[in-house]
Amino acid sequence: MKNIFFAFILVAFTLVVNAQAPNLTNSTKPNATERPLDGYYKKANVLNARVTPYANLRESDVMFSKRVWREIDVRDKVNTIFASPKSRLITILTDAIQAGELTAYDASSTKDDVNGDEFSAVLNAKDAMAKFADSVVVPIFDQDGNQTGSKVEAGEFNPDSIVKFRIKEDWIFDKQRSVFEPRIVGIAPMVKISKAGQAFDEQPAFWVYFPEARHLLVTKAAVNRTNDLAGLSYDDIFMKRIFSSYVVKESNPDDLRIKDYAIGIDKLFESDRVKKALMDFEHDLWSY
Length: 288
Hints:
Layout: H1 2-20, E1 62-73, H2 89-98, E2 104-106, E3 122-123, H3 125-130, E4 135-141, E5 147-154, E6 164-174, E7 179-195, E8 198-204, E9 206-209, H4 210-217, H5 234-239, E10 246-250, H6 258-261, H7 266-284
Antiparallel strand pairs: 1-6, 1-10, 2-3, 2-9, 4-5, 6-7, 7-8, 7-9
């Protein structure tokens, strides 16, 4: 009886070992207990990446600071990576919010937060996703199939409908390190608001705090059009500024957006003026 028991244990152990053993015979038949590797090597550089922290910054070391709001249009050829079906930025953000890995902040204007971008109110996942879907009227029927009324519900979210992202960032000159650099504060997907059949300008659906999002974005690979092994994450895209954008607002005493005092092509000229002013500031710091 004891010999039969040990023989049973040996057979079971052999089956487990064989099930977990690699394909040393180069057999073309996949192992039923494991998912086959999609390729000939395991891509783990981005998955195991860690955030490179910013250099420490003290208020006394900041000689100059300018806050700028800019927008990224994913329809721009340079920005198509943000809308790639393999790795959409909006899908990465919404999946993380619904999984509780990322916090969404309300973009609504309040008395204490006029612009709605100071991360003052937290949105739960359901309310955050409701910002994307247009409202639809759903009929209500009774047991006999007769319509007794209707109700308004949120429609389905289409990730392809998000074509713009707004970025809030600070341009800071650190005299301790003699470095003039931008530091992104927040990211917001833009949605087009329509009420009573009237369409309004695109507005932020919610804000995501970028320093918090970096820990997520650093593990999400960005698609490269020329090299599948570029090894760039979304954190690299933002930190290395590998995107095209235009300025929609700079900090000013009247809290005006560019579109509040410029129209038509003048808005683009004003956006370029703000960009050039930042470059000129850095250039004028040094003597050549």
